[in-house]
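ESCALATION

Customer reports they have been waiting on this structure for their group meeting. Please prioritize. Original submission:
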Amino acid sequence: MCLTTAFLKLFLQGETMTKNQAPLEKLVHHAFSAQPEQKRKFIDSLGYKNINSGYKWLYFCLRTGEDHRDILRTIPKAFGIDEWSFDDALQTTKNLRWQESRIAQLEEEQNQLKQEIIARRNFRPYLYVRTSATRPTGSITIYAIANLARYRYVFLPEKILENSLEKQQDQVGAIIRKHYKKLAGNCPGMGSISGYYFRNSYDSYMEFDNEGNSERKIDGQFFESHAVATIKNQTIAVSPH
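Update from on-call: job pushed to the front of the queue and completed.
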């Protein structure tokens, strides 16, 4: 999402960027107060069919420093505002908004890092069932409640990781064959089973076919159709963004 879109979304929802007025908004507000009739004429001159939309866009521009349909460019002349003062307030407003955006970005990155730390700490090995369908073929709500852990995930005992990689492959292969046979090759709501991913660490996984044969080991994470895998209210894996 671009910066303009993010600010507009917040503004149209009735939220303010900061508790105080932006420097640009504060400067122009004085001109509006001195010329209330000119303010309405100015909005009318912008050509908006809905006057409220005109006001919303006006204050969006003043609070973010992002211009729309040359609103900012025409304000100084329309209200007799010194251009140097206007440009200074505009640049200050843009700088403040960039800082706010950067702070929000850093907070989001910090939150994602915390989630990853928790996921790594709670990680336990599991099988992820690959299917022919990429989306549930029935009700998503029913599928999510009834089939997430039961059919799409097969959680494995942590002790399996204490064995050699070759031994892990043998054990996982046996589990896969049993699971595939039990479901008759079909994953309810997601079509036929096309293979399995054995996630033996947070940063790697192995591909298996339906007969339990190991195909290859891959470093990194794979895309999961569900955003988060949990067990007993603990996050064990987070789908890559």
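Sent to customer with the following note: The two ends are 14 Å apart (CA to CA).
Escalation resolved.
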